[in-house]
Write a structure and sequence with these properties.
This is DEAD/DEAH box helicase. It contains 22 helices and 15 strands. The chain is of the alpha/beta class. Among the domains are: about 220 residues, 3-Layer(aba) Sandwich (Rossmann fold), CATH 3.40.50.300; about 160 residues, P-loop containing nucleotide triphosphate hydrolases (Rossmann fold). Helix 2 packs parallel to helix 3, helix 14 crosses helix 15 and helix 16 packs antiparallel against helix 17. The protein is globular and about 65 Å long. The site of adenosine monophosphate has 13 residues, from helix 3.
Length: about 525
């Protein structure tokens, strides 16, 4: 790769960058005066039609660094039916929707057709938008290929291709899809390529598909922000130990805690922890890849708007989301991939604010902690003594104690008994967790099916929780849309299941169809992960 490296210089104003008056006016209206380093470094080259390799994380202003020059360049020419002029590939639905929001915000003075092709929503609307002719096509790779296979999309009119969050695409098993897509687009295109880190597979991809790119690197990807206080918190390794550790931490931080994202490694843990927090009356929501799109967006909006104080999330669902002003990040699990730690804690301490992150650590996590410390180049302090002082619990109740803040409900005795059942199974599942290396949520179908069976035995407390939740939130989701398609994001979370595309008999789909039969509290609007546990 012949590459010309520039140091990202901060230009004084946006008007120094060569953007069109329409774009400048929208940027001014957005209240931005100074371009960020990635914007200052990338925009002038992107406007000249050069390929750009941007090494930058979310939170650096990288979205505008491709949206603004694209808008300027799109002012000439118009779209033709089924032949989009530009294509932006994003790894998750949320990121794709965020990019669409950016095009709407900065493109308010343009009359551009924008189409968003993501899973979890019906094909029909998307087909109509393609038919009308899209100036801007934003897509996740699986859904894009689905449209192409249906013959509804031609990629030979694409003038600008953006590949965003490339390292995340790699984690999610999307690289073969990306290669296929790149080969479908004319070689004369301009390519803008962004990645927070540059593992060898990504470097190879850039060598294959970028032409003499300008490399713009704005900060070391694997550095943790210095305005975040980071602590490790010792815990016993059983799920109920960890849940108790988390609850105690949250209570201790109460005065400073505005809102928190709580990260788990797998979606089954997201579901379990979410239910447990609700049981203890924490104002929590959950975000993972098995939820249908509308429920995910609604959950996120509730958290952003302050309607929810806690958001339990998986990496896949939360990566790259722009949620400003999160005061705390709790790692309920130590991330298996050290880079995920940097991304997780980067959800707090944004835009120069201070933030706090607590990582719950058990005896079996030491090698992952070592890897994180090597990556960030510093030792993380222990909050209250290291693991040598952990006292293993003998299985205390994971149900709210009577008298202190949690009134005893009818059926409490049953609940306690069932909690013990859940604990036992949770402990057994944990053992297998070590084997899962690549995709943090890859084995979810098997585990979720197991959880499904267990949950049927524990119907009373869960139904109770779900009903309470339903009264608190009117979360809307669309069963019909979920049934119709959501394969492109859920598949990678289970591992690379691309060959199964179109397979209506795969376990996840069967499970959802069965689960539609009986729901509690939400009727047809219940999020998918609750559906798993709320049969009556
Ligand atoms: P991104 O890295 O694209 O996710 O952007 C992170 C945040 O920075 C978003 O909330 C943007 O709206 C904001 N932002 C983008 N560009 C600027 C800028 N030049 N000045 C201040 N904030 C910005």
């Amino acid at each position: 790769m012949s590459s010309d490296t520039t140091t990202a210089q901060e230009a004084l104003t946006f008007s120094d960058l060569g953007l069109s008056p329409k774009v400048l006016s929208a940027v001014t209206d957005a209240g931005y005066t100074q371009p960020t380093p990635i914007q200052a470094g990338a925009i002038p080259h992107a406007l000249l039609g050069k390929d750009v390799l941007g090494i930058a994380q979310t939170g650096t202003g990288k979205t505008a660094s491709f949206v603004l020059p694209m808008l300027t360049r799109l002012e000439k020419g118009r779209a033709r039916a089924r032949m989009p002029r530009t294509l932006i590939l994003e790894p998750t639905r949320e990121l794709a929707a965020q990019v669409e929001e950016n095009f709407i915000k900065y493109g308010k003075n343009h009359k551009l057709n924008i189409a968003l092709l993501i899973g979890g929503v019906s094909f029909d609307e998307q087909d109509k938008k393609l038919e009308r002719g899209a100036d801007v096509l934003i897509a996740t790779p699986g859904r894009l290929l689905d449209h192409r296979e249906r013959g509804k999309l031609l990629l030979n009119g694409v003038e600008i291709l953006v590949i965003d969050e490339a390292d995340r695409m790699l984690d999610m098993g999307f690289i073969p899809d990306i290669e296929r897509i790149c080969e479908m687009i004319p070689f004369t295109r301009q390519t803008l390529f962004f990645s927070a880190t540059m593992p060898p597979e990504i470097t190879k991809l850039t060598e294959k598909f970028l032409h003499a790119p300008v490399r713009v690197e704005v900060s070391k990807a694997a550095s943790a922000a210095t305005n975040i206080i980071q602590r490790l918190v010792k815990s016993g390794s059983k799920p109920w130990d960890k849940r108790e550790t988390l609850r105690n931490l949250i209570k201790a931080e109460d005065a400073e805690l505005k809102n928190a994202i709580i990260f788990c490694n797998r979606k089954v843990e997201v579901s379990e922890l979410f239910r447990s927090l609700l049981k203890y009356d924490f104002d929590a929501g959950a975000l993972h890849g098995d939820m249908d799109q509308r429920a995910r967006m609604q959950m996120l909006a509730n958290f952003r708007d302050g309607k929810l104080r806690y958001l339990v999330a998986s990496d896949v669902a939360a990566r790259g989301l722009d949620i400003p002003d999160v005061s705390h990040v709790f790692n309920y699990d130590v991330p298996i991939h050290a880079e995920d730690y940097v991304h997780r804690i980067g959800r707090t301490g944004r835009a120069g604010r201070s933030g706090k992150s607590f990582t719950i650590a058990t005896m079996s996590d030491t090698k992952y902690i070592d890897a994180i410390e090597r990556l960030i180049g510093t030792e993380i302090e222990w909050h209250d003594g290291d693991l040598s002082t952990v006292v293993a619990s003998e299985g205390e109740d994971d149900a709210p104690r009577r008298g202190k803040g949690a009134p005893r409900r009818a059926g409490r005795k049953d609940d306690d008994r069932k909690d013990r059942g859940e604990r036992k199974d949770g402990g057994e599942r944990k053992k297998g967790g070590e084997r899962r290396a690549r995709h943090s949520e890859e084995d979810a179908p098997a585990v979720a099916a197991q959880q499904h069976e267990q949950s049927n035995a524990a119907e009373t407390p869960v139904a109770d929780v779900v009903e309470r939740r339903a009264r608190k939130d009117a979360i809307r989701s669309e069963n019909t849309e979920r049934k119709s398609s959501d394969r492109n994001e859920r598949a990678p979370e289970r591992g690379d299941t691309r060959p199964q595309r179109g397979d209506n008999n795969r376990p996840g789909r069967q499970r959802h169809q069965e689960d539609n039969d009986a729901t509690v509290g939400f009727g047809d609007d219940m999020p998918a992960f609750m559906r798993i546990v709320a049969k009556v």
